[in-house]
Design goal:
mainly beta, three-stranded antiparallel β-sheet, 58% strand, globular
Length: 198
């Protein structure tokens, strides 16, 4: 069975990916002001991401990371696909580990009442997370998550995602037994692999 910390480590990236080679931009005018709107090619269909979610336009696509377990356990392949959903009002993500040993799905969207970006992430491992995102700049954001149903005492996750040179680095820390763990990092690159659910 996959270790729960790895489940949680990939939560942060399962929400996001890296830039697509089919990325272009389009400028729209509204109320005498110009708003930069990103156009993303997804499966030969043009989709427009809402301006409030524009930071994620660089993260649309399919991406992967290979990393090792602690000890002698086999390596992990995490594949994540991120796509524009709900007429551009949300970012939908799917990801799987080791050909479906574990997987998850999330929706990221702008919450008008809270005036911030929030998300829900559901997994094949009988737990889910919810949280919010703070945008640092055009290439970086921080996700804060509340975890429900974790058997190892992890109740919160904080992850920083940074896009640079067609890769994304995700640094993740966990709030466990009253204290934050040392951050762990993974790097993801563009992939042609498929997300697999058993």
């Amino acid at each position: 069975m996959v270790h729960i910390k790895t489940f949680l480590l990939v939560i942060s990236f399962s929400l996001f990916g890296c830039t697509s080679s089919n990325h272009t931009s389009n400028t729209a005018k509204s109320n005498n002001s110009s708003v930069e709107m990103e156009r993303i090619n997804i499966s030969d269909k043009q989709a427009v991401l809402d301006p409030k979610l524009a930071v994620f336009s660089k993260f649309v696509g399919t991406w992967e990371s290979v990393f090792e377990w602690d000890g002698d356990k086999p390596e992990v392949l995490d594949v994540s696909k991120n796509e524009v959903a709900l007429n551009g009002k949300a970012l939908r993500t799917l990801h799987s580990i080791n050909q479906g040993m574990y997987g998850g799905e999330s929706l990221i969207f702008w919450d008008k009442a809270q005036q911030k970006i929030i998300f829900y992430y559901f997994t094949t491992a009988d737990f889910y997370t919810s949280g919010y995102i703070e945008v640092v700049d055009d290439n970086q954001f921080v996700a804060f998550e509340d975890v429900v149903g974790n058997e190892n005492g992890i109740t919160k996750v904080k992850s920083t995602s940074t896009y640079k040179d067609n890769t994304i680095k995700v640094s993740t820390a966990y709030f466990k037994n009253g204290e934050w763990t040392k951050p762990e990092s993974r790097t993801y690159t563009a992939s042609d692999k498929a997300v697999v659910f058993k």
